[in-house]
Amino acid sequence: MKKIKIPHTFTIVFSIIVFCAVMTWILPGGEYARITVQVDGTPRQVVDVDSFRHVDGVPQTWQIFTAFFKGFDRTANIIVFILMIGGAFWVMNATKAIDLGILHFMKQTRKLKRFRLFRKVGVENIIIASIMIMFSLFGAVFGMSEETIAFMIIFVPFAISMGYDSIVGVLICYVAAHVGFAGAVFNPFTLGIAQGLSGLPAFSGLEYRFLCWLILTVLAITITLIYASHIKKNPQKSIMYELDEYWRKRTVQDEEISLEKSRWATWIVYVLISSVLVYFSIQYPYTIIKIGNGQYQLLIFPVITFIFIVLGFFGGRKSVHHFILTLLLLTVLMLVVGVLGYHWYIMEIAGLFFAMGFATGFAYSMKADKMMRLFLEGCKDIMVAALVVGMAGGIIIILEDGKIIDTLLYEISQAMINTGKEGTLAVMYLIQNGLNILIPSGSAKAALTIPMMAEFSDIVGISRQLTVLAFQFGDGFTNMITPTSGVLIGCLGIARIPYAKWFKFILPFIIALILIGFLLLLPAIYFPLNGF
Question: Which conformational region is residue 338 in: left (phi greater than 0), alpha (psi within -120 to 50 degrees), or beta?
Fold first, then answer.
């Protein structure tokens, strides 16, 4: 029997663009008027619910070829982010420091197996669960999404080193963060905006949302552990086994690593970074961290400075590899603080990793030309992922330019009329899941749908809080499967997982999440829940 060849991700995305172009010839054009409202002091463009009107459609033809250019322009921030991350980590990977860190970690975890409890539960299971809880919390608290792209280069080879496949690497980081994103407790990009547009107190309904987050996270961890155990027993059963040869070749063994002493350049980098951190500690001793409605004034920079000075000194004395791992730790800490305390986004995070790459090169005494060559090699290696992100952005361009995206929104919203509480809730929930395939941005979808959904919920007697929860689930679950998501396509590109293989693997999990999500919505109809 002839083996079915799975199309390249680029082919799949282009086929979707062509399909959307065909739809612009079939569906009538339409548009809503937009009005500007203030949400927590930020102006937002939202739909005027009663303003829909039919307009002349704009059937798309040759535009399928320019959609790539426009999509590239719209997603340029993510594309540049991917290239900068790829280049920076290529420089770091050339030092073998990450490989050393993974091998050292694996050695230490193997020692834990002498304890009966760890043998019974499984050291690897504890590691996977701990990492997933951390990233799920990041998604639930500050809406980690794009940031997961940077961690793919760490966790995919980490998963391979543990005897798993690249899919496990994506599950423990990207999927964990997006399950947390869906079950958000304080996520300002979805929950905060949606509640603001609904006229609800910011981050209200905390208790039940936390329960939902806990259930969804436990489900994600359970599925991951079952799959990881299955692959550990027989790696060849993985649908990525052949393609993961790329990662297996890059995974070094113990005897291939030899520690190198720190050079004078290592200590120059150490002194320079320490000086900069001391300066920031003096200038900005306190950092205000916002989590939900709470504000916490913390001595963040002084603590980070102390950690780096101590670990950097002792790491540098051990080897240049240990010092570079300290740089990586500093980068991750600065990322979390920057996002939570200083509202960093893609540009700032890309700059942070860019600086990390070159600090690594200098600490390793690389010549400038070699660093530049390595950086460009990293960009070249990851270029396909960046190009596919641009192509995926073209899907939305075709729908918008063809004037049918508002028509779709209007027609499916009419399906909620006269369906009763449960029916309205089910339709609302399915609409949010479906729209997420067309509009992967949570904040943009909130502006488009929440004003309309809030009115429908008032008519049928459903709490607006429940409407927001339906939006929240619908926005989060299908993020992990939609080809229009630049973050998903970027993560898959870095992990070298074809979209078709990912779709085949993740579809049952997404269906399970959608079903459980609906069951979690029902109690708010029948029972009095705080905030609902």
Answer: alpha
- Whole-angstrom distance, CA of residue 338 vs CA of residue 361: 23
- Give average pLDDT by consecutive 10-residue segment, the chain, 532 residues: 65 88 92 76 72 88 90 87 89 86 78 75 87 91 84 90 93 94 85 84 86 96 95 92 88 63 91 94 87 77 94 92 93 86 85 92 92 92 83 86 85 70 82 79 77 75 87 88 88 92 94 94 87 80
Measured CA to CA, the distance from residue 426 to residue 36 in angstroms comes to: 29
Please give the structure tokens belonging to residue 298.
């913390």
Q: What are phi and psi of 36, to 5 degrees?
A: -100, 130
CA neighbor of 209 nearest in space, from 517, 444, 446, 419:
517
The residues near 415 (Cβ < 8 Å, ≥ 6 apart) are: 427, 431
Spatial neighbors of 161 by CB under 8 A, at least 6 apart, are 102, 103, 106, 251
Residue at 329: amino acid letter: L
Please state, in angstroms and rounded to a whole number, the distance separating the CA atoms of residues 402 and 58.
5
Is 30 within 8 Å of 53 (Cβ atoms)?
yes
Query: 22 vs 18, 19, 473, 482, 484, CA distance in Å?
Result: 6, 5, 30, 19, 17
pLDDT at position 121, please? 76
User: How far is it, in rounded angstroms, from Cα 104 to Cα 106?
Assistant: 5
C-alpha 525 chain-centroid distance = 31
| Residue 200 DSSP one-character state | P
Q: Which run of H or E residues covers position 135?
A: helix 123-142
